[in-house]
Amino acid sequence: MALDEFEIVRRWFRDGPAAAGVTLGIGDDAALLRPPPGQELAVSTDALLEGRHFPATLRPGEIGYRCLAVNLSDLAAMGAQPRWFLLSLSLPRAEADWLDSFAAGLFEVAREFGVGLVGGDLSRAPLGVCVTVLGTVPRGRAMRRTGARPGDWVCVTGTLGDAARALRLETCPGETERGRAALHERLARPRPRVHEALLLRDKASSCIDISDGLAADLRHLLEASGVGAFLNAEQLPLSPALRASCPRTEALQLAAGGGDDYELCFTLPPARWTTLDPELRRACTRIGEVEAAPGLRWRDSGRTFQPRAEGFRHFTSRGAPPPGDS
Amino acid sequence: MALDEFEIVRRWFRDGPAAAGVTLGIGDDAALLRPPPGQELAVSTDALLEGRHFPATLRPGEIGYRCLAVNLSDLAAMGAQPRWFLLSLSLPRAEADWLDSFAAGLFEVAREFGVGLVGGDLSRAPLGVCVTVLGTVPRGRAMRRTGARPGDWVCVTGTLGDAARALRLETCPGETERGRAALHERLARPRPRVHEALLLRDKASSCIDISDGLAADLRHLLEASGVGAFLNAEQLPLSPALRASCPRTEALQLAAGGGDDYELCFTLPPARWTTLDPELRRACTRIGEVEAAPGLRWRDSGRTFQPRAEGFRHFTSRGAPPPGDS
Prior knowledge:
The structure is a homodimer of 326-residue chains. Chain A has 326 residues and is of the alpha+beta class.
């Protein structure tokens, strides 16, 4: 049986996990949604295109997982509760196996974070996914990039550099393959820090998610706040898999500038550290301090340290296929 | 000076027309929006890809205009007031002239309908645009596809078939060129029927916008409502430009099945016709009547009439470059 776009929507996308606040879901010209009273809406959109935002080796289930996860990471950076999403999917051809896997990965994330697919469209074109996510946050309580103050600690969730190392393993066959599975998981299935963000919301003075790389994204945050920071490279949180996969200096470079981490980088008045939820504290590492002077200054155990790359920029970056840059 | 993605956002996209209800616009991980109290949110997304949803002959200003206009048409079909939009733009290269024109077309529509650009992303990739629009509608008052009842009139706004004829003129050089400019305008710069929709909102029993072609889209509406309809082809509203451009039978075929009209097709209990705003009545034509029996039955001045095509479907339709199918 031929699969046309309406049949694809019916078989794979209409019956995903339900979400609250949906008056009218897929099937009309627009979805109708009811944000809870007293809440602001947080909205973000990101395209993922094969070969630009993810390697062609990514499996369809991983593409499905990743396209929603990286968008939820943007909502997490604001401290917003994810609620709904829309999916614009371009496919070169309609294959049931591919759609089975893609939808399974997509709805795995949707189920875990309680977000409902409420609309979208389908086109026959080179593989590409554009996801728009909608979340809610109590009025005036969203985290922004603008609140960092001198003396605040600079902290990150989780570990950094794993996904960048995995991308290198995917694209440079000569690399040794130790720890490949654990690293690949971080590239293919980034876990958005939604739960951590909701715990951070009324504590952090500013927040951003790390997609282009710590150095590049932290710089955006510092510029928005009109401050600078001093960072200790030796405090960058490295996973056992990354440590096992490459020399320490390479691991630090990947953690500082590699990208695709989808961890949160936030600033925090030091007195608030002990008020953080203990589980959240265990997931976070202090890596430096906000200073009044603009710019980012690095040290590694007292020695100079300079991150190699500062984030991929579309249109001006050259060379290898870019890491994800949503 | 090289144009990187941040510079492009700064120069072309950050300072579009303002909109109400924006707590935080472009520049953070997500936008923060405040829907008015007592309103539902109407949300829709559509991708426009070169060669699939518009011909490569479309100028950048027309692409900018069209990508937002067709999305606003989806909000119009719901009777929603457009408020905000997000733009995911893929470009093969960054050229200032192209961006000047694209942004001018985009913001011309944005200004006219009072919608604000609040977020998005940029990628270097083949030309493609994915727009997500957000609107608001008083709770429970949105128009849907499901309310058509036997005895209701079937009506459309404006004239039909012009854009489909223009697409044919663009892609078949042998065609005569009479009326080309007027027809091209309908393809390049479709006017979303937002104002008409707000006047229709508490009158129409159901509504859909015509993107795939009257026959295909009306069929969706009738199926959703569990009814059928009888249509008079001789009552299809044809523009002078379309009548001058091709024989009557061809004009009727384009009006019935051509697509890309972005007019509204709605059903209306006959007693409500005289309660419509007079200006709205002048913009609308009655073309048939809803019947209990499923399916679409056509006559042309008492003779049989069968629309040639019934809407382009991605993945199964063959042949010529598809008309727009958002």
